[in-house]
Amino acid sequence: MRSRRAVLSLGSLVVVTGTLLSACGALPGGEPDRRTVTVWLMRNSASDAFLARFTKEFEEQHTDVRLDIRIQEWTGIGEKVVAALKGKHGEHTPDVIEVGNTQVPQYVDEGGLLDLSLESARDLGMAQWLPGLAEPGVDKSRQYGIPWYAANRVVIYNKDLFARAGIEQPPKTRAAWLDATRRLDAGATQGIYLAGQDWYTLSGFIWDEGGELAHESAGTWTGALDTPAALRAMDFYQRLQALGAGPKDADEEHPSQAAQFAKGDIAQIISVPGAAQQIIDANPSLKGKLGYFPIPGKTAARAGAVFTGGSDLVVPAATGDRAGAVAVVEALAGKKWNTDLARTMNYVPNKTTLADAVAGEPGVAAMAVGAAHGRATPASPLWATVEAADNPIKAYMSRVLSGADPAGEAKRASREITRRLDESGE
Question: What tens digit of pLDDT does each residue of 299-328 get?
Fold first, then answer.
């Protein structure tokens, strides 16, 4: 997933039928002048039908506003947003922008975002926001990113293989999960297919243990894979990964774990629920045989922590219409439209209190349970340098799984993370 990285599906720019009023004046007929609020949304974040419904009702309720929704591509969006925030886009600065939740720290660091703390506390119900969406949007106690939607990993399992192993209910604790996976890992069946470099899954185990990927103190970030908590997480990952034939030196997409699962001899993978469709497309005989459960936590009372991908909404400080921009954000992030989006797109809504909205979809319901304990990557504007092609966390995991000393490798990886997050460039 990306933080999105995630992952989801939409159409192109929506065209709303009906009378459109120009931004500079009204058409004949006595309609009031409308001012334009420009909104950048990412491709595959909302369907055309959703955008049509939203635009129609919003403009009916805000008769002085015309929405101009422009669909953007993920490729190259970072540079485009930074240019827009600096007024270098070459056209009207957008009033509202959808950004990946883990991208918000970068844009805050660049400057140019509107502080929405007042609206968050007064109108948007911030106390119920998913932490994995809300936390990256905060800088120095000021809220810049408003949570919109989330997606995260769950366990996808083969019901037939579970039944054959005599496992009637999905496990709810890590200990029970290991026990069930050992029972499943027999004969020609892999208990779980877990690639050696699935660092997003490792991150959840680290957070469950009370650890972090990196610590921040007085503006300085330090890699933290060598802490006792993080080492306990790596030990659990190593035990789980050994109960299958996942490659130690590759991530979950090389080869595609969905394609591996589709062969029918793998009991479990850790993925977003959307991977189920890829599995069924590759092997239609598995239709109706896939189940989902939240990644188990250390106790049955609390599901495991997960990396939460998804999107936040931000408002450029240079907006020419703060009131209009805030109204759009409040509507999209509010109960009605956030619930509609979640049901339409099979997302997790932005608040824990809205989880019931997706209870009818087993995969999304399992995501929502995990999302309540979700986290995001460290809020350093330089975190993207850690996730680069030579990600030191991936290298660390492969070395440990291949027999290297965990403590020594963790120190080595932590030093590299610290170096990459050093804003002084030294």
Answer: 999 999 999 999 999 999 999 999 999 999
> Which residues fall within 8 angstroms of residue 405, CB to CB, at 6 or more apart?
none
145 neighbors 312 (Cβ within 8 angstroms)? yes
CA gap 227, 215 in Å, rounded? 11
Pairing of strands 214-217, 138-139: unpaired
Tell me how far apart the alpha carbons of residues 16 and 56 are, in angstroms, rounded to a whole number. 7
Q: Is 424 helix (H, G, I), strand (E, B) or coil?
A: coil
* CA dist 287 → 78, 246, 278, 284, 291 (Å): 38, 23, 11, 6, 10
pTM of the model: 0.89
> Following DSSP, what letter does each residue of 196-253 receive, concatenated?
TT-HHHHHHHHHHTT--SEEEETTEEEE-TTSHHHHHHHHHHHHHHTTS---TTS-TB
Find the distance separating the first CA and the last CA of the chain, reported in whole Å.
31
Q: In 330-339, which positions are buried (b, 16+ CB within 10 angstroms) versus exposed (e)?
A: bbbbeeebbb
Interatomic CA distance for residues 76 and 225, integer angstroms: 31
Which stretches of 242-361 are DSSP H helices? 257-261, 275-282, 322-333, 335-345
* Dist. CA 269–CA 157, nearest whole Å: 7
